Amino acid sequence: MNFIKRRRYAAPWRQAWELLRYRYFRRYVRIEGDARQICHQTVVGCWNGVFYATSMGNFNYFWIRDFAAVVKSLRALGQVERVQATLRWALTHYITHDAVTLCITPTGRLFDAPTRGVDTLPSLLHCLWSAKYQLDGIEREFLNRKLAEFAEDFIEPDTGMLRPHIDAAELRDGVLYDRSAYAVAMVERMAWAAEHLGLQYGFSHRIYRDELLTHYWNGQYFNADYTNTAFSAECALVPFIMRSVEDADKLNLTLDYIRDHQLALPVALRYTDTPRRFRYRWWATTVMRNYAGDTIWTWHGAYYLRLLWGQGRPEATAREADFAAMLERYHTFPELLHPDGRLYDSLVYKSSEGMIWAAIYLTLEKYRSRS
Known about the structure:
Blueprint: H1 13-25, H2 35-46, E1 62-63, H3 64-76, H4 80-97, E2 103-104, E3 110-111, H5 120-130, H6 137-154, E4 175-176, H7 181-197, H8 206-216, H9 233-241, H10 248-260, E5 279-280, E6 296-297, H11 298-310, H12 316-330, E7 336-337, H13 358-362, H14 364-368
Antiparallel strand pairs: 1-2, 2-3, 4-5, 6-7
Helix pairs in contact: 2-12, 3-5, 5-7, 7-8, 7-9, 9-11, 11-12
């Protein structure tokens, strides 16, 4: 059975209204203090007493992809119990509905946006392993079933590689990819986590690592997807962030490319320096124009700073200063910016505020001290 025949979990109409209301009628909550104080209050504000929401703004619900980005940071900040509680809450709803979706509303409704994601189950397994979550028998049976469905829908049975030309959402959800390097890295992490959690997945994580190195690496960065050699920030960085590939020389070549092409200016980090080389979903070129083009995404920016400090790069100090100045200018941790550094807005959408990604920034100290 192809995944397009499975039940679809469309976003409720209320979410569309909330985006419009947020765009035109809501002002950002101003957080006073320096960059670290802003980030600390953001993380505190994203905890709603039950689970970590994705933001203090229009994403006041659970988003597994974003939680996967911060689960290790939250643990490092001492939020072990809240991380465990969030995952327990999410798993309860997933098991109840026999599905793993990208999002869950506070009332427990599941939905995907804009469509089913190739990185959803990989994000969940990454979270479970990173959080040292102890699976019970029901949870283990459920996850094994979802892994089998994932393989049936997304994976070539003979090779273990991603099927070509699947219309699935991923991190850069306004772009239509053909087996992006980001997706390959996330499946590598899923296979790795499944092995270490004692779950059943039919292929070794090593085949995806080897695919990244032999097919995607071009000498400067990992290509955006199987046929597109353009630079895309999440495809270039996530293989290193998720440790799918652990190679300091290749990482530094990627950081050289970002520096030489000024992708971290005026603040880190733009998706790409060649936006016209990508295919976009219709809304990303119309009502949400340039949402996923050469816009600046702070999720990538925070991880980029971590990678800079981890490699002891000379530009780390200046890039962190730029990032801190941006946070203090807007008094929040914004979702994304226009290429010139202004808060992103479009006909129907504006950048969310108070993103849970602030947790990544708060853990820079550990990497800075190594330099």
